[in-house]
Amino acid sequence: MKSAMAKHILVKTKDEAEQLKQRLARGEDFAKLARKYSTCPSKKRDGDLGEIYPGQLVKPIEDVVFKKPLLKVHGPIKTKFGYHLVVVYFRG
Predict the structure, then answer these.
(1) What is the pLDDT of residue 65?
(2) How far is residue 5's CA from residue 70's CA, in Å, rounded to a whole number?
(3) How high is the pLDDT of residue 1?
(4) CA dihedral sign, ordered 33, 35, 36, 41
């Protein structure tokens, strides 16, 4: 079965997600920003979502995890939880 490894930052507003994306583009550390700003419990693991299999995440995030280019910041992606910035590190 196909799996992937990704990290994300979850925030409440699109504006906040855009600001964080700009900071990442300037070279700030994803893990540090995730720990400081993410509202998801994964922030304790630097935003790491662990090993992901199809069907585990909401569809908009899963589409990014399994279809978009690796090692690029994707988002903001709106879900019922808020706005996500997602980086996919590995697919196997």
Answers:
(1) 97
(2) 10
(3) 67
(4) positive
Query: Which tens digits make up the pLDDT trace of 7-56?
Result: 999 999 999 999 999 999 999 999 999 999 999 999 999 999 999 999 99
DSSP character string of 24-92: HHTT--HHHHHHHH--SGGGGGTTEEEEE-TTSS-HHHHHHHHHSPTTSEEEEEEETTEEEEEEEEEE-
pTM, two decimals, is 0.95
Are 86 and 7 spatial neighbours (Cβ–Cβ below 8 Å)? yes
- Phi, psi (deg, nearest 5) at residue 30: -60, -45
pLDDT of residue 55: 95
Q: Tally Cβ neighbours within 10 Å of residue 39.
A: 13
Calculate the alpha carbon distances from 14 to 10, 17, 62 in Å.
10, 5, 19
Rg (CA), the chain: 12
